[in-house]
Design a protein that fits this description.
This protein is an alpha+beta fold and about 550 residues long. It has 20 helices and 25 strands. One of its GO terms (biological process) is glutathione biosynthetic process.
């Protein structure tokens, strides 16, 4: 026990470096990424190696069967790329996919099984990025994860708890049951799990590229598992073969002399984070980070941004999304004027941003979002990666194929295609990407160079986690470890959420007196962050990994 406590203390200590750094949600993922940097690889190489390892050691959060969104800064070319590896709906998916007898299905009724499985995109996206910005041979990037899958890894307390909590759903799938519930019991903390099936899949990807997942026998097995499930889906081998990642233009906005850049649609995260910061930019933020004023400001700015998010944000390749209008400074000034420092808004309505198009939209009702992991990486050449990766709910669809879990990402669509005769922007559609909240973020200083790299897990709570961490670093001057360790405070739709078991929970009565609907709950965020300081002696890197998970920063 004493050794475990010492390990946890060490993982929570601030990390410092002068050359390169990887921050991940598990030490083995950080170690795999750093090994690539030490071998002369780029931040992209490190991200691929770390993601492959996360597929093994954090299978409930991300992996080969899911998707990912990534910002990449090319230091030599001074070029920012926003890579979209988000899952897509099958070509046959109808808007009514999650309706039964005209009514929306229950979340887990929809999520468990084949119905909610989207076409995975993470490996295709990482492969495309590697072709442009990687330097190490593709097979080399998978060697650490292959070796670990064959030798086995030690189950952490967090993974053991996740397996135990979801045991009944995992038990329904033969492969998941055999792997996660050996001898019929959930894998326990300290147990050693070997995954030779995953090792074989990773070896196939190393040899054949992402085609190993999207064509051939593995693709056929994925489609068969989806379509043959008791809760069948519509995914076909043609859907898998036809998937293509997309390089997009990041959304960026000013804050306190910095430029904040994040992910555009199909993620709602970048736009919502920028809206929150734009609203807070009109406020004096010299307040106690753990006090009621900070909670009020963060909560109210988040609630205002969520009203717009729920009305307008979706896959811009399929529906008109007024991104330009939602980030217009004049429009955001109007939205900022709604914020009252003494009282919460009783009625929260979406605004009327300029440059709208298409039919009037209905706001999507709230629904669960879970899962996910985040990697923050800076290499010795000044390149940076912010990669958020997911299979959506914990353990995704609870369908296991060839050693990895399939996603349930289609439940990120609105279950209701229309409300009161008006379409919902985020309704299901063929080959459409479901709306995400993932917010991989890179902050640039006045000279145009990165000064911070960050992101989080947490479903739609990612938006509040990232916004609060940016304020902590940029307004309150906190180092990354202190910023990601703060008691979590943020909006989820109209509700102001406070992290249970922390000083934030004690603020509930005072915030309720100000008119906030408040919920005190567990907040398993999963932030990772790197601060880049340019000093006369050179660059200094500071890292932070969320103590709520198993993460750490590793560096040289």
């Amino acid at each position: 026990m004493a050794r475990l406590i010492l390990l946890l203390i060490c993982l929570a200590l601030p990390a410092h470096a002068q050359r390169q750094m990887v921050v991940a949600a598990h030490p083995m993922a950080a170690e795999a990424g750093l090994a690539m940097l030490r071998a002369g690889g780029t931040a992209i190489d490190a991200a691929i190696a770390a993601q492959a390892m996360l597929a093994l050691v954090e299978p409930h959060a991300s992996g080969l069967g899911g998707g990912a969104l990534m910002l990449h800064w090319d230091g030599a070319r001074r070029r920012l790329s926003a890579w979209d590896g988000r899952e897509t709906a099958p070509a046959a998916a109808p808007p009514t996919l999650f309706l039964r007898d005209g009514q929306p299905m229950g979340f887990h009724e929809a999520a468990v099984g084949g119905r909610a499985v989207g076409v995975p995109g993470a490996m295709r996206m990482l492969e495309a990025a590697h072709r442009r910005q990687g330097t190490l041979p593709w097979p080399q990037l998978f060697a650490p994860a292959i070796a670990a899958a064959e030798a086995g890894f030690t189950v952490t307390a967090r993974l053991a708890a996740q397996v135990a909590a979801d045991a009944e759903r995992l038990r329904r799938d033969p492969q998941a049951r055999a792997y996660f519930l050996p001898e019929g019991k959930p894998a326990a903390e300290g147990a050693r799990l070997r995954n030779p099936a995953l090792a074989a899949t990773l070896r196939a990807i190393a040899e054949q590229g992402a085609d190993a997942l999207h064509r051939g026998p593995i693709a056929a097995e994925i489609a068969g598992a989806v379509r043959g499930h008791a809760n069948p889906g519509l995914l076909t081998t043609d859907d898998l073969a036809g998937y293509a990642p997309t390089e997009r233009e990041a959304v960026c906005g000013p804050y306190r002399g910095f430029t904040i850049c994040s992910m555009p649609p199909p993620s709602s995260g970048g736009v919502a984070v920028l809206q929150i910061l734009a609203i807070l930019g009109h406020q004096e933020m010299s307040v106690d980070p753990r006090g009621i004023e900070a909670a009020h400001l963060l909560g109210e700015a988040g609630r205002i941004a969520f009203a717009d998010r729920n009305r307008y944000l979706a896959d811009a390749d399929h529906v008109p999304v007024p991104v330009r209008g939602l980030l217009d400074p004049n429009y955001l000034l109007i939205r900022a004027q709604l914020l009252d420092r003494d009282r919460a808004l009783a009625a929260l309505r979406p605004g009327n941003p300029p440059w709208q198009g298409g039919a009037p939209l209905a706001s999507q009702p709230p629904q669960p979002e879970h899962g996910t992991s985040h990697l923050s990486i800076v290499d010795a050449a000044g390149n940076a990666v912010a990669l958020t990766t997911t299979i959506e709910d914990a353990f995704g669809a609870r369908v296991m194929v060839r050693g990895f879990l399939l996603n349930n990402e289609l439940t990120d669509f609105s279950f209701l295609p229309e409300i009161d005769g008006r379409p919902v922007a985020n309704r299901v559609g063929p080959a459409k990407r479901p709306r995400s909240s993932m917010s991989p973020t890179i902050v640039f200083g006045p000279e145009g160079l990165p000064v911070a790299v960050l992101g989080s897990a947490g479903g739609s709570r990612i938006i509040g986690h990232v916004a609060q961490t940016l304020v902590a670093m940029l307004d309150w001057g906190m180092e990354p470890q202190a910023a990601v360790s703060l008691p979590r405070i943020g909006a989820l739709n109209t509700t102001l959420e406070l992290e249970a078991g922390t000083s934030a929970a004690a603020l509930a009565p005072a915030l309720e007196a100000r008119g906030f609907p408040v919920e005190v709950r567990v907040m398993n965020s999963g932030l990772t962050a790197i601060r880049i300081l340019r000093e006369p002696g050179g660059v200094r890197l500071l890292g932070g990994a969320d103590p709520r998970r198993d993460g750490t920063a590793m560096s040289d």
